[in-house]
Structures are given as structure tokens and as C-alpha cells.
């Protein structure tokens, strides 16, 4: 048995990558993430980042991050239900709510999960979601988790969205008329949601928020906005697309 074990030569779980496959060869990043990156000893312009304001290079933020790490410790990213809630979480939530002039704010541990889980937390199987056809991948994963009916409208096309809303309104009215028992579940109108982005990640276009808000008020639709890109980048003080258009945040049901 010992002889057989000594003869055994395990194969690598991952085969070696041929030098001809340039895109698959590992890259060594040896610098701090910022405007530029040092990749394989070569300085490169970093276009794969949301660090639009250059905050990662702000020494005040760097020192504050180091101080927080020493005080609270660090670990892998995880939910607060597992890692716990500390004073800085609550303080940050309060400050964000005040800055955005919102009732409350909730801080998640990871941006992608924020978008995906927030949608599925509110939108359920019987609901209808109207969404721009160019929404980002995180929003699409939220749609899958919600199991809601998704109706896409053409990119930034408010007129097409209104046509879909008119069709849905007619369907709801007809469904109610054809139901004998008005208290049954089948007679209830489906809740309607509009989910858009302040600035669309896939196109860079700014949403037509004033017209969208008007439609939501007209057809009684709840509106959620993903401001992953627009927050901090547009608006006189960086409050995002609501400030950019001068629309009060209370007219938006949820800003992500």
C-alpha cells in the first residue's frame, strides 16, 4: 500500500494556462486601488472603478479607515445579523438619512446585495415590476428573487412605459369586473412598481425622472431608484438624480 501511495502523482485541479492565452494569465496588482494601478509592474489607468471623486486617494479617508480598522477590527464582508451592529453603523445611517432628506436609511455590507435583496424584500410573486430594458445585472437578480412579473419598456422611453401602464390598468379593471367574489385574491389588483437607475450603468444615460414620477402618481405606481452611480456624482451637492431634477425625495419610495 505504501508503495502505491508513493507512486501516486495527483493532477492539478486547475490545468496550467498556456502563454498564448493572454487574457487568462494571472495579473499581479502591486499598488493601492485608485486612479491608476500598477499591473505587472506597469502603471495603468483604472477604468474599472466607481471611484469617480477620487476619495480612495483622500488621506483623511485613509487615516479614518485605518483608525476604524484598529478600533472595530476587520473581516470578510457579511450581513449585520451575523457580524453585529455597532455605533458607526447607526451613526452613518442617521447621517445619510439627514443628507438625503429621507425618513430613514439602512446600510448594507455590499452594494450588489443591497440592490438585489432590497427589490425582493418588497416585490413579491403577485406583483408587477415595470423596468427599463437596460437595468444593471444586480437589479435583474433582484427580479429573479422576487418572482414578480417583469414588464420591460424601451430604454429611457417614457411614452412606451405609459402604454404599458395603460394596458395594465385596463387589464386590472377588466379582471375586477369579471370576478364575482370581490373579496377573493383574484379580484385584487396587483401592486405595481417602477424600478429604474439614476444613471444607467450600461449606457450612462440619466433617467427622465420628472416624467417618470408624474406617471407613478397618475397610475399609482411605487418607484424605486438605483443610485449606485448617480449618488455623489450629480446634483449641486451630490445628492443624486432627485437633486439634479429638483424633485423632493419624499416622492420616491426607495432610493438604493
From TrEMBL:
One Gene Ontology cellular component annotation held by this UniProt entry: membrane
UniProt keyword list: Acyltransferase, Lipid metabolism, Pyridoxal phosphate, Sphingolipid metabolism, Transferase
Molecular function in Gene Ontology: pyridoxal phosphate binding; serine C-palmitoyltransferase activity
Top EC group: transferase
Gene3D superfamilies (UniProt xref): Aspartate Aminotransferase, domain 1, Type I PLP-dependent aspartate aminotransferase-like (Major domain)
Cofactor: pyridoxal 5'-phosphate
EC number: 2.3.1.50
GO biological process: ceramide biosynthetic process; sphingosine biosynthetic process
Pathway: Lipid metabolism; sphingolipid metabolism; Sphingolipid metabolism
Keyword Acyltransferase appears in the UniProt entry: yes
Domain Aminotransferase class I/classII large, chain residue ranges per copy: 43-228
Keyword Transferase: yes
Family membership: Belongs to the class-II pyridoxal-phosphate-dependent aminotransferase family.
Protein name per the record: Serine palmitoyltransferase 1
Amino acid at each position: 500500500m505504501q508503495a502505491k501511495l508513493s507512486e501516486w502523482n495527483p493532477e492539478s485541479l486547475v490545468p496550467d494556462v498556456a502563454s498564448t492565452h493572454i487574457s487568462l494569465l494571472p495579473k499581479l496588482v502591486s499598488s493601492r486601488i485608485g486612479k491608476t494601478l500598477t499591473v505587472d509592474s506597469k502603471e495603468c489607468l483604472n477604468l474599472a472603478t466607481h471611484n469617480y471623486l477620487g476619495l480612495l486617494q483622500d488621506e483623511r479617508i485613509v487615516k479614518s479607515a485605518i483608525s476604524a480598522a484598529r478600533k472595530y477590527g476587520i473581516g470578510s464582508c457579511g450581513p449585520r445579523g451575523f457580524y453585529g451592529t455597532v455605533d458607526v453603523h447607526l451613526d452613518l445611517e442617521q447621517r445619510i438619512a439627514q443628507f438625503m432628506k429621507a425618513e430613514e436609511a439602512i446600510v448594507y455590507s455590499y452594494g450588489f446585495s443591497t440592490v438585489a435583496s432590497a427589490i425582493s424584500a418588497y416585490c413579491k410573486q403577485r406583483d408587477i415590476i415595470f423596468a427599463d430594458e437596460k437595468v444593471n445585472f444586480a437589479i435583474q437578480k433582484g427580479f429573479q428573487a422576487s418572482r414578480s412579473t417583469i414588464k420591460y419598456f424601451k430604454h429611457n422611453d417614457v411614452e412606451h412605459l405609459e402604454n404599458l401602464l395603460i394596458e395594465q390598468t385596463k387589464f386590472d379593471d377588466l379582471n375586477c369586473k369579471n370576478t364575482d367574489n370581490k373579496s377573493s385574491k383574484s379580484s385584487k389588483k396587483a401592486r405595481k412598481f417602477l424600478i429604474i437607475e439614476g444613471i444607467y450603468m450600461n449606457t450612462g444615460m440619466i433617467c427622465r425622472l420628472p416624467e417618470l414620477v408624474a406617471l407613478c402618481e397618475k397610475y399609482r405606481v411605487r418607484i424605486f431608484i438605483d443610485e449606485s452611480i448617480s449618488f455623489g456624482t450629480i446634483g449641486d451637492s451630490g445628492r443624486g438624480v432627485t437633486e439634479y431634477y429638483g424633485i423632493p425625495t419624499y416622492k420616491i419610495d426607495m432610493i438604493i
